[in-house]
Amino acid sequence: MFRKLPGDEAQHLVTTTPDTAVVFRPAVVQTPAIITLVIFVWRMLAGLVRLLWRHPIASAITAVPGVTWTLYGWSWALLTIFGLLAVPIGWALIHRASFLRLIGWRLLAFWRLTWVYRRHWQPVMIISGLGRHLRGRDYLPHLGKVTCTSWADLVTVRMLTGQSVKDWADRTDHLAHGFGARSCRVSVARAGRLLLVFPRHDPLATPLPAVPVPDEASVGPVEVGTCEDGRPWRLKVHGTHVLVAGATGAGKGSILWSAIRGLLPAVRAGLVQIWALDPKRMELSFGRDLFGDRYAATPEHCAELLEAAVVVMQERADRFAGLRRTHTPTVEDPFVLVVVDEVAFLTAYQADKGLKLRICAALATLTTQGRAVGVGVLAALQDPRKEVMNIRNLFPDKIALRLDESEQVDMVLGDGARDRGALADHISPIPAQGAGVGYVRLETSPDPIRVRAAYVSDTDIRAMVEAVTA
Ligand SMILES: Nc1ncnc2c1ncn2[C@@H]1O[C@H](COP(=O)(O)OP(=O)(O)OP(=O)(O)O)[C@@H](O)[C@H]1O
Question: Is residue 380 part of an annotated ligand binding site?
Fold first, then answer.
């Protein structure tokens, strides 16, 4: 009976049973008013200290004019307000980046925390099912820190004990709409804590021009576009295999061409060879001269070229065996990147069964054994179903551009990728807004990253051909 209960529940605690001699009455303990007052004052002080600690700048900006008014009158308070406004405005005009980093984003985070997240936290948690209302008491996940970047709010959350990441990943739609964002992405910050990303606007909404050809010859991660957080998107091609999946018009070509463009100095230096398989003859044929005689369009020729790559790979494996375990590109042993546009033409839609078997076997051999000896595959594909591409799991790195169906996202990026926010089926079909936009899930991280590939125009490709053939 002396169990601690929420106040509004005491009235429901009727333990009498009709027609029995024994009647249990709930014991109502009256808390002395002074204890209640002390608790409220203590909570207020703790809240004040927490506010000052977490938001010193915002607190100072509000407190200073108030104190000045009390001590020196309204005219001085007005002057202080003008002074306080003039400093940040001047700073923002002179050096916007440092102003935003040190003041702007913090103020915005304070505003978003109080006005958006704290205000809506309880209803969104209860209605989405992430919080519980039990016996008159709300059990809510703890809303932690809110940080603002140029494009998104990053919200840390402490989950309720017993909740899983999947509970949150399944409710990203509720969270996004509940807090007025377009989408929400969930990732694990540490045990029991999550990081929710709510984009405020889309930094990838406009097409990006082709990335300038690098000055140095390198096979290192090639800059092919921009990540959502504004960092350059560098695609690793050496030491891995990459599969790019996207519906027709999703912009697969821009990834293939951006990768080739980034490798151009290394091609000129003889450190990289690009072998092109172009069964559709619509994409890579445009820069045919870049590939010399390592270009194939007919299925027979494609099978031969793939088998030639397997021979190179096996010959290197024989030579490297017992001597080295990784490949360093040299003029004698350059990195061979096999670029395949619409790989399904060769693996699934190929009528000649013999050819199909040869091509599948060569591709499977390259993708299982090639990366250690400097042979990589970069393949593009429209339809990611297993019956179309049964070796898709042999590609360590995958990119999902716009896809037609939501189930296709996990087929490309692996289980749970869509729940974690890879909404590739929501990418706009309008080329200016959505072509080249996609999600990347790297071998090393379960969290998908939203990216946009730079658009390599026909003029850019012509210039690339001229630069290599000159
Ligand atoms: N990165 C990009 N940024 C902006 N627009 C792009 C980008 N990539 C492609 N586009 C536009 O979208 C159109 C379709 O692109 P692309 O042909 O590369 O798509 P795809 O996925 O290769 O299609 P398909 O499988 O039918 O060949 C292009 O003509 C171009 O106008």
Answer: no
